[in-house]
Amino acid sequence: MPWLRPSRLLLGALLGVAACDPSNPKWGNDANGDGDGDSKAWLKLGQGEFEFAEIQNDDELVMVLGGQGLLMFPIPLHAGEFTLPDDPSDYTDPKVPILDMYLDVDGFNIGFGGHFARIANYPIPFKVLDDGTYEFIYVTIFVPDELANPCDIDEQPGQLHAELETADGDTLILDLDVSIEVPDFLGTGCSQ
What we know:
By secondary structure, the chain is mainly beta. The chain has one helix and eleven strands; from the N terminus they run αβββββββββββ. The strands form two sheets. Strands 1, 2, 4, 5, 8 and 9 form a six-stranded antiparallel sheet that branches. Strands 3-11-10-6-7 form a five-stranded mixed sheet, with no helix packed on it. The termini are far apart. 25% of the residues are buried.
């Protein structure tokens, strides 16, 4: 089969990888909105399993032991002023917002894509609140299994990056500097 040569197989594989590239936005790549400068869309990242505590630049990002027994950083989302699907909970609708997020921890970027942890092309089925804003319970940033002692990253600087693509053509981008906080009962040698 001359058409099934290694060079053609390689080309096909490369095209397949390029088609699934999470750095290629679904709706567009206009970081400032739809290009006309009047977008009012917004996104806030929080932390906590049971309530929203907004993450500000230079805040501590607290690791928790999740109900499933895995170490994680729960990141709830609040947002508003962009189009959602008619049924906002339908994560298969083409209008559902798509999230790309990663956490980098200095000296510990041992996960996929050269990041500490990464979430790519994650559909966010927001709930519409009474005041018209949107919330998502939380995105789970799991601690990589390769990190033998969670306390190794205690008080280490980190960078939290999020991009939310909306059906309106907006890509909402947040970059936050954080300090990792690991409670002492989660490992050996954590600071108090």
